[in-house]
Amino acid sequence: MSTTTSRPATGRLMDLPGQMHVAEGPLDLNGMYMAHHAFRRDLARFAVAARETPVDAAEVWRALAVRWELFSGILHHHHTTEDDVLWPQLLEIVDAMGDSGGRETLEAMEAEHDLIDPLLAACAAGFGAMAQAPGSATRHQLADTTEAARDTLSAHMGHEETEALPLVQSLLSAEGWERVEKAAGEGKSASDLRFLVPWVADGLSPVQLEAAFRSVGQALRVLLVLTRRGYARRERVAFRYAM
Fold this sequence. Notes:
The protein is mainly alpha-helical. It has helices at residues 30-52, 58-97, 100-132, 136-171, 174-185, 190-201, 206-216, 219-238. The N and C termini lie far apart (47 Å).
């Protein structure tokens, strides 16, 4: 395995709200931690919104359905990158080492993704139904499903942070991590970035944002200035009863 490169001395790994563990090591995992923070934040908001938004708030339900599609698209790409690029690299390494515990952890990551996918599909169907033909029974079922998705995905991310990401730090080369980051960034249009940049920054403190700029690049700062206001306006519509 090739030698990993060091993290820049100007930064440190983030410890964000809800995060279960900081996997110290040479790789800059802040992009992963920021994504997890955004997923946790969104899932909490969707669960409250599904429970608290009035059945007849048509504009809000339409906005929530659109917002769920944006969220689930990002999450699907995130999990696909892990399943197709990250975990296979690590499985090859742990198998070469004869590390059965490492293989068990990585197989659990993939299995947990399989548990999450049906919940996400059910949430999409529920938000779509509330946007098209709202009803109290549909809202109640959706509220239960979003809470289950929140809890299941939160448990998965905690498991990943405490067991899988330490494997990334201890076993994966800098080149291997670069392949993961390249795959994570592929296929992003200008429209995607207009949402992604303020989305990942939402809820971060000024100090945390400075760490994000160091990890992701200073272009993030400029894009955030240009996109933050429109993002916040749309969030206020979708999460009117959850913020």
